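Re: beginner question about structure tokens

> Can someone show what the tokenized structure looks like for a real chain? I only ever see the sequence side.

Sure, here's an example I had lying around. Input first:
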Amino acid sequence: MGEIVMRRAFDQYPAALVIYDAEGRVLRINQKMKEVSGYAEDDIRGMRLTEFMHGSVYNEVEPRILNAVETGQPDYLEIEASARPGSERHPWAIDIFPLKDPAGTVCAVSLVVYDYTEQHHARQRMRLLGEARTRIVTTLDVSGTAQELADLTVPRFADFAAVDLFDAVFQGEQPGPVLPAHEVALHRTAARSTYALPAEAVPAARGRQVHPTSSPLHRCVITGRAEARLLTDPEIADWLTDDPIHSELATRFRAHSLIAVPVRARGTTLGAVLFLRYSASPRPFSSEDLAFAEDLVVRLALNVDNARRYVRERGIALALQRALLPPGPIAHAAVETAARYLPAGGDNQVGGDWFDVIPLSGARVGLVVGDVVGHGINASATMGRLRTAVRTLADIDLPPDELLTHLDDIVTHTAHGHGTANDESDATGDQLSGDIGASCLYAVYDPVTCTLTTARAGHPGPVLVSPDGTAQLLDLPPGPPLGLSSLPFEATTLPIPPGSILTLFTDGLLETREHDVDERLDTLCRALAHPHAPLENLCDTVLDTLWTESQTDDIALLMARTRALDRNHVASWDIPSDPASVAEARRCVSRRLTAWGLREAAFTAELVVSELVTNAIRHATGPIQLRLIKDLTLICEVSDGSSTSPYLRRARLYDEGGRGLLMVAELTERWGTRHTRSGKIIWAEQRLADA
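And the corresponding structure tokens:
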């Protein structure tokens, strides 16, 4: 009875089972092995494995059987082979273990063969998911991300893969609603096939795809649900009738099954993915394959949506950056200017670099460059606030060191204000809270004295190119970055020969991963050593010379060629503290304007001079000086030794004074007060008829 049970257990064992003798010849096979191999036991008894199973893979199995006899150790291997000629190739798992007598001598070897198909495909799916984590999320490029999915899945999961996305995704926008009764227009962003597509099916690989309502891609976009179908299903047959492009593809390669998966992220459908299997892969898609495809496309969808949001926010940041920067060269009598702004390349976003050219009183000009730490919309917005603050502070004629001190206070207060906000981040990763880091260089050039007064806050110093072509980095006190409130800022005043080129830039121009900063600075000085070249050309030369593929930060570049206002543009007189000297001041102004050919401006200029000089004599201390500057406007300046600033007020009916500055304000374009170390200067600008 026991022997009968043992034989039944052997014959009815659900896996294919073979027993070999000590010479590797077949002794017994069970019923499952007969079904798998197609051989009866009597047909192959006494034969070695390679005598009835042909193929290189079996040449590897037979030595392992003999090795189990010699060593008495079990073995395990996995192969992919056809069990019989013409049958489908399968993954098989093989257990080989020795059979020993009571003395421990190996007398036979047992070989058990398991169909390993499901486990093999599950392992492949897990391996693909692991690769997807590292391959699909490596870029913020929509097309590149889609192509990574197609390349990853063909031919290891499907014979054809295509990623279709709405056109709005490429503009960084969310797709609009789709009506169920209307066709869906998608852009085929990526596709791959195991076979080269014929001319009739090439449109299936790229370009605009219009999917009819019978299409599985249309259904999954509308419903948001994935589906796996055989191409023999009636609904799929209707689709192929309506879609000649995919019909040609399915017919040419005898496709038998498909999977359609919506690309959904954060509640929005961005497109769909189509997978096909051809006759070369006879196993149709299973429910496990459908779950795997959904998991895979989820990873694609999140990265496509991140790329879409990146495109949108980069566009907003770039538009904001360009709107806040000067639109072009600014005409000024003191300097000729040219500038460039270059966003970082690759996946890096627009940053907070900025530059500005600010007209100041007395024909002077303010030159500024700055850099806000970070990228994206927040950095651009912060840059806009700081640029506005600099313009406001410059408008009240603060010297560079005082201007940076006030700007430092603004940054400090802004950072403290942000510190109370929540810790949410935008799509680009910029923090809405925490400290704001920024650097700034502010320089004021005076074309009358040909001097440059500069202060900097944690920013690279400017490069000065003399008229003889000598280029050097100006050695200025560094000053701490804005927002630290640690050390005072120090201004330096230097004589600048007319015709010199002053180059201001942000650190993105010099800092790279591959090169030393000093080496890059030398390269910059050599590129700038052309004092007579047009500034626009010189800007392009600098960027062409110093730009690298690995640029990780944006660049702001500002160049200014200095000019001088000579005696034909400037006249000055010392005024005694005597009311009688007002008439003489008017006569001096009249003669000078006549000599300059500006006789038509004399009447207004005499009234302005009369009021300003009279105020200085009555309310200030000496010495008093009157200066005229012929620029794009006529500038009248009266300096005195008092630090008290005048202010506009409306005189009452019976007041004897209080109307002078009001008249000056009405007769001129603008007026103001500029404080000096020895007192103040009251100035007024008068528009010229030929300006």
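Each token stands for a local structural state, so reading them left to right follows the chain. DSSP finds 19 helices and 26 strands in the chain.
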